[in-house]
Amino acid sequence: xxxxxxxxxxxxxxxxxxxxxxxxxxxxxxxxxxxxxxxxxxxxxxxxxxxxxxxxxxxxxxxxxxxxxxxxxxxxxxxxxxxxxxxxxxxxxxxxxxxxxxxxxxxxxxxxxxxxxxxxxxxxxxxxxxxxxxxxxxxxxxxxxxxxxxxxxxxxxxxxxxxxxxxxxxxxxxxxxxxxxxxxxxxxxxxxxxxxxxxxxxxxxxxxxxxxxxxxxxxxxxxxxxxxxxxxxxxxxxxxxxxxxxxxxxxxxxxxxxxxxxxxxxxxxxxxxxxxxxxxxxxxxxxxxxxxxxxxxxxxxxxxxxxxxxxxxxxxxxxxxxxxxxxxxxxxxxxxxxxxxxxxxxxxxxxxxxxxxxxxxxxxxxxxxxxxxxxxxxxxxxxxxxxxxxxxxxxxxxxxxxxxxxxxxxxxxxxxxxxxxxxxxxxxxxxxxxxxxxxxxxxxxxxxxxxxxxxxxxxxxxxxxxxxxxxxxxxxxxxxxx
Length: 482
Prior knowledge:
The chain has 19 helices and eight strands.
């Protein structure tokens, strides 16, 4: 029943994935109720996604022709090529994509198609049983010691062969439209790619990529199932991927934009900076070759630029309000913002600290220096953590200052303060805070989530207001350039 070539190792690898991945096991059990042959198809899909170059078996039974058409059409699509880049030689990603694609294929088949495939499979199984019986009778005939036994066995064999021929005629040939199968494949593959990218985004949450690569597939599966079974983690993952990509983009464009002041001229071949008089050579056919020669030899006169904006590469301390009013979408949004900043810190080897705060006695802190990135289990703990109490600003600000003062790796760190509330801050504390801020040379960026208050102005260098979490581009644009 298998369409794709795979050895015992391939089957054991898929079996191992099924044993640890409850979702794939459940999908297979439910699918087999509708199509008893679906286990074979799932193995074939997994093999196509995991193997670098999947190959077809030479002999394929009639009951597997639908599978063959599906796989053939799948391999021809651009959607498969995109997905295969994510899944090849990756057991975990192949398993995730297999689940999504299998569900998509099953959902796209009509009840009539399912009925025809079930009937075909059942008759094929009967045919195989009859063929096995015929082979056994042939062996018994060879071993029979007398003519009477041989004649008796020969009659049984003739009867069995007659049944085989009858069953062959009864096996239906389901109508398989390659174009329809191709559409089914493309839709299922596209959905599988989205799901796989989403899970891979989860595993890119600011942790060391090598840590994920070394993680056994069983641990990856357990972690993925923990994330997918948690409403909070699942919602964070839905927006964290976008935030991370946006954060990295802002860092890249910030660096590119940094050189914007003309200070001199120089020789080179950067067309964006070549002076107009050199470009004039292109207008005249007689001087065009001269321009090309100067371009190849990097002798074109061009502007020399210098950066004028400060490229901050210091540590980051994120303070997240854990008061009761932040629970829900505000908490999810703020933690997704934190993950974007953590991704920047990890990529640029910057130390990173996270402070969860509530009332005066509610404070929790996690510190990761540039040589000690977070592990996934610790990051999950941070994302799930929540106080749900009152609001106090003095305690988290004191904690952040202590971190900057006492930890060498957090010298000149920027503080990102996310809250939706306010509290009374003593003037004596504010005076001391401003003094230490100047001495320690750090800045405070505060994000006010759907709330208006002047309290944060007293300790912040920049205050960003957001009234609608769905319109967060301006806030993210500033924060992710830090």
